[in-house]
Amino acid sequence: MVGTEVLNMEKGKSAEQLAKEQREVSVSEFFERNRHLLGYDNPTKALLTVVKELVDNSLDSAEDHRVLPRIWVVAKPKGVDRFKIMVKDNGPGMIDKQIPLAFGKLLYGSRFYKLMMTRGQQGLGASGAILYSQLTTGKPTTIISSTADGKTSFYELMIDIKTNKPEIISHQVINDGKIWHGLKIEMEIEGKYIRGERSVLEYLKETAITNPYADITFQGPDGKIEFKRGANKLPKLPKEIKPHPYGIELGILKRMLNITRAKSLLSFLTNDFSRVGKTSAKQICKVSGLNPNLDPHKIENHEAEKLFRAMKKVKLLRPPTDCLSPLEEDLLLKGLQKEINAEFFAAVTRPPSVYRGNPFQVECGIAYGGEIAPEGSVKIMRFSNKVPLLYQSGDCAITKAVATTDWSRYGLKQSKNSVPVGPAIILVHFASVWVPFISESKQALAAYPAIMKEIKLALQELGRKLSHYLAGKRRREYHIKRKKIFERYIPVVAESLSHMTKVNEEKIKIKLEKIAEEKTGVVNEQGDSEEINQSSTQNSE
Amino acid sequence: MVGTEVLNMEKGKSAEQLAKEQREVSVSEFFERNRHLLGYDNPTKALLTVVKELVDNSLDSAEDHRVLPRIWVVAKPKGVDRFKIMVKDNGPGMIDKQIPLAFGKLLYGSRFYKLMMTRGQQGLGASGAILYSQLTTGKPTTIISSTADGKTSFYELMIDIKTNKPEIISHQVINDGKIWHGLKIEMEIEGKYIRGERSVLEYLKETAITNPYADITFQGPDGKIEFKRGANKLPKLPKEIKPHPYGIELGILKRMLNITRAKSLLSFLTNDFSRVGKTSAKQICKVSGLNPNLDPHKIENHEAEKLFRAMKKVKLLRPPTDCLSPLEEDLLLKGLQKEINAEFFAAVTRPPSVYRGNPFQVECGIAYGGEIAPEGSVKIMRFSNKVPLLYQSGDCAITKAVATTDWSRYGLKQSKNSVPVGPAIILVHFASVWVPFISESKQALAAYPAIMKEIKLALQELGRKLSHYLAGKRRREYHIKRKKIFERYIPVVAESLSHMTKVNEEKIKIKLEKIAEEKTGVVNEQGDSEEINQSSTQNSE
């Protein structure tokens, strides 16, 4: 290292030259160049991503405002690989001065800091779409909003890439006296419209299933398609929670110590965390060997580390789960029933559970038979916080859990560790305050053991319901067949008996029919006449 | 949208409340929470990522400075799942005032803006590692550097997460009179040390192969391991290039128009792009219908769009390729030979090619036989800009190209569309100014058709070299076997002939041995004695 290395003939750069070349990269520049990180890898995925980000925002804001969502989506072709996208909602709207920051700046939003179950998390959704729009078409995005105050705001916005700040192209507030609330966004993008899997239509259909209380209208290249509301109640509003000691990292703990308003370590522990009461707080102090009266702002690095270790050792209650807002069985069933034409539906909602200090909840549903194609693998619909996941299916904990559940026990054909085969759609919804996606594009869940376990338990419960239905169905079919055989011979038998006994043939027929009815039994639609079923199953052996 | 929706019983949030909750998220906060985006998913991968980022930086800076890299790496266990990592290099060092920004701020660096082939690209490498260190251990990172000016800088740095700015814990410049240049970084992290695939050792070994002019010493839990320099020349210094019209997007073009120093559209086109001469520039203006004398700063949106379309239509030369710095066959062979014990080596470097306006070049190498395990699939070593890719192998264009090449033609066993089987290591190096990774963690290449084609062509050329060697080897083996059979019977034949002819047995033996020698031929090591081979192959039929 003392300059004795063999130098090459070419002239190298000095530390001074290299220093001069360094500069800051704005977040916008970073994501502009790395737009695949936000889901803008190619025109097909980009069109889906834009619609998804805008619709997810609309659903979040309507739910925040506690109104039943009503959403309009338009995708209008504008020449080769160009689309005008419009999304309009009935959310609370946005106050005029907030609009530029909320849409014209990346990494700006309200959800990043909250431990709460929402669709958006990072403040990159709508602004990312605007970034993509201006990158591919050079045009500004139009935003129109009102908060039911008789005024309407109009903006044309772009993002100043070098500074990551909004660039207002035009702005007007019109005192039109119209009382409405909501937001309308319109942008032009480079995009490709496809049908089938991973399409905008598939995304909207699956969204309609897990948001059955929303009314969605889509006007696209294939005409107008409506996803009508199928339920008139919203799921409960999720609550924001404080971090749980089991879920935080040392760096975060140190920052929390720095910025807390608490005056003592004891009150820091009880105020700034969930599930830490006075007793547990004292115990944490004891295990860590720190004085409960210490000023948290004066805790040094090595002390913070002791505190951190103690927090993981002391036994605490699991985090509260009112931060979660599952659909529950009723809404799940309504969602499935309104969008899928099947003969049987079932749904399961598991109790909340925890991974790495984060509460989560799994629910699942199944639609079987009817118009669902009987050939090929079962279709899996994956959701996180009510948002459909359309990409990276193979890498997702949900797909893995479906494949490693033994469906042959529940009446579906399956090769070992593969997705089962048959006329069914299996839906799995993962709800959490912090969804462990395997990558930035938010399309697949990481297969943490705690998560895999919960998904599999939910699927097994679902499997039992399916199996019960299928057993009933088989029995019904068997009995109908058996009854038909009886009935086929009744006239012949009646005639012979009448000959032998001289009893009226018609009378014998009626009696025989009555016996057939009794013996072959009519199983009701629910397949729950256990006694008859059992005996008939035994008879058939 | 006129407030007629059914409201839920719970009270919703107003636009004002929602506005108050919004705020900016700093880049540091974003990556702290989404650290998996930077490769810090779990302690095992994190240990590898830290070493990789620091070593890649060291190699880049030594090459910039045109010195043969000399790198020391230490990974010292510090309790359960804790490691102290140290990386020291002989690069140019960093000037004192530059150190805090270069390491204490995310998205800061010199490489983001350059179209040039380098390992680092985003300014997230070392600062990302420091972020991870402080998140998991709460400790600052130590940086020591000198630029051969007789002074040494010492820093203890952290990153202020809320502002994404360096937080200087301590700082000293010592006038020690020592003349040395280089940089030393030391940090403590949460990490797990593993052996085998995807380990630090595997990363360093593969790095030693594609950087054979580097000297790397690793002091880890298994003791000291040295990767000695195997070549004394650096690859040529890659040049920075201007963007090629085929590779840019409309949004970027608009920004370039805005900030250009050119006074006319014509000079903008010729000065700010590569491969646009006066003739092509005039043609672009003509096709777009724009006046070549237009002030680029005054070009409006619809005009920029016309210009953009015209740029893609006019026929232009491919971008220059001196921005690439491939290893070339000689260095590739040296790298393979110094780290792998095999009986045969070959390497191929393809001419440069282009995807989406970005120049790229593919080279590959093979090591066969010797100490390489003969069972199981061939090992594939993947590299981009000389950096080993250890994760996401299945998703990578390189793996796909290897699997879809027909290796049975070249002497390796293979099931259709699978990685071939046999005692071989196949290395593929992808060099480009902009590597199309499929995701942020920079571990797999996107399978663009142009890229797949080039990799497959390189592999086919490599396959022919292997096939030639294996054919020679088979012939040699056949001849040795044949010669042995001859030799086995010579004594018996000699004895019988001696009996019959009364000629001295020893004489006959010598003559027979000479004939055997001539007829079964000794093929030389290169397997290139075509005539003998061919005749013997025919004889054997």
Structure notes:
Two copies of one chain form a homodimer. Chain A is of the alpha+beta class and about 550 residues long. Helix content of chain A is about 40%, strand content about 20%. Chain A contains 15 helices and 16 strands. Chain A is globular, with a radius of gyration of 31 Å. At the A-B interface, helix 1, strand 1, helix 2, strand 4 and helix 5 of A face helix 1, strand 1, helix 2, strand 4 and helix 5 of B.
Characteristics:
19% strand; alpha+beta; 4 domains; 541 residues; globular; Heat Shock Protein 90; eight-stranded mixed beta sheet; 15 helices; Ribosomal Protein S5, domain 2; 16 strands; homodimer; Helicase, Ruva Protein, domain 3; six-stranded mixed beta sheet
Helix content of chain A: 25-40%
- By oligomeric state, this entry counts as homodimer
Pick out the low-confidence regions of chain A: 1-9, 523-541
Q: What fraction of residues of chain A sit in β-strands?
A: 15-25%
Give the second-level CATH assignment, the architecture of the largest domain in chain A: 2-Layer Sandwich
Order of neighbouring strands in the sheet with most strands of chain A: 7-6-5-8-3-2-9-10
Radius of gyration of chain A: 31 Å
